[in-house]
Amino acid sequence: MGQSHSSAPQVVLMGLDSAGKSTLLSRLLTGQVMETSPTIGFNVGTLYLDKKTSLTLWDIGGQKRMRPSWKFFLDDCEALVFVVDSSEPARMPEARKALQKVLGDERLRGIPLMVLANKKDLPHSLTIREVSNQLDLQSYKDRLWEVQACSALKGLGLQQAFVSISKRIKKS
Ligand code: GDP
C-alpha cells in the first residue's frame, strides 16, 4: 500500500457491482485526487474527518474476477463497509451471499461492519430494517455491525456513517 496511506486505518469498501461504491468514493473525496493503485488497479483515497481522524478507503469492488486480489487488502483492514443498492430488493440474496463469503475470511474476524443502504433517494427503497433482515445481519454475533441509509448520489448520510465507523475502529 502507498506510503501516504500508511498511518490512517484502512477501511475496505465492498459490494455488488452497481451498488454505488465508486459514486460514494468520489462523493466523499471530492476535490481530492483519487489514486488508483498502480499494481492492483483499485481506487483508493484518504478521507479526513477532522484534524486527528482520517481513514484510508479502498474500493475493491465485489466482482468474482477480483477476488484473488482481495488478499492484498484484508490483512490490514480495520473495518468493512458493505454497500448495497437498497432500491434493488431482487439482488439482496446475492448481496447476502457475497457478504457472508467475505466475512467468512479469517483475516476479517471481529472487525466492525458497516452496511450502507445506498440510493435511499429513490422511491420504494428498502428500509434499514429490511436491509438488515435481507442480509441476515442478526446472524453475525461475533462483531459489531450497523446499517445506515445513504445516498452517494446526493451526498446524504455519508459523513455520519464514516464518523461512526471511525469511532468503532477506535473502540475495537
Ligand atoms: P459501483 O459499481 O458499485 O461502483 O457503482 P457506481 O458508483 O458505478 O454506481 C452505479 C449506478 O448507480 C450509477 O449510475 C450511479 O449514478 C448510480 N448511483 C450510485 N449511488 C446512487 C444513489 O445514491 N442514488 C441513485 N439514485 N443512484 C445512485
Protein traits:
seven-stranded mixed beta sheet; Rossmann fold; alpha/beta; 25% strand; 26% helix; binds guanosine-5'-diphosphate
Helix tally? 5
Rounded to an integer in angstroms, the radius of gyration calculated over CA atoms is: 15 Å
The CATH superfamily turns out to be P-loop containing nucleotide triphosphate hydrolases
End-to-end Cα distance? 23 Å
Overview of the molecule:
With 172 residues, the protein is α/β, with parallel strands linked by helices. It has a single domain (10-171), classed as P-loop containing nucleotide triphosphate hydrolases (Rossmann fold, 3-Layer(aba) Sandwich), CATH 3.40.50.300. Helices cover 26% and strands 25% of the residues. It has five helices and seven strands. The chain has helices at 21-28, 71-74, 92-103, 128-134, 158-171, and strands spanning 10-15, 35-36, 43-50, 53-59, 77-85, 113-118, 145-149. A seven-stranded mixed sheet has the order 2-3-4-1-5-6-7, sandwiched between helices. Strand 3 (43-50) and strand 4 (53-59) form a beta hairpin. The chain starts with 9 loop residues before the first strand and ends with a helix. Mean pLDDT is 87; it is low at 1-5.
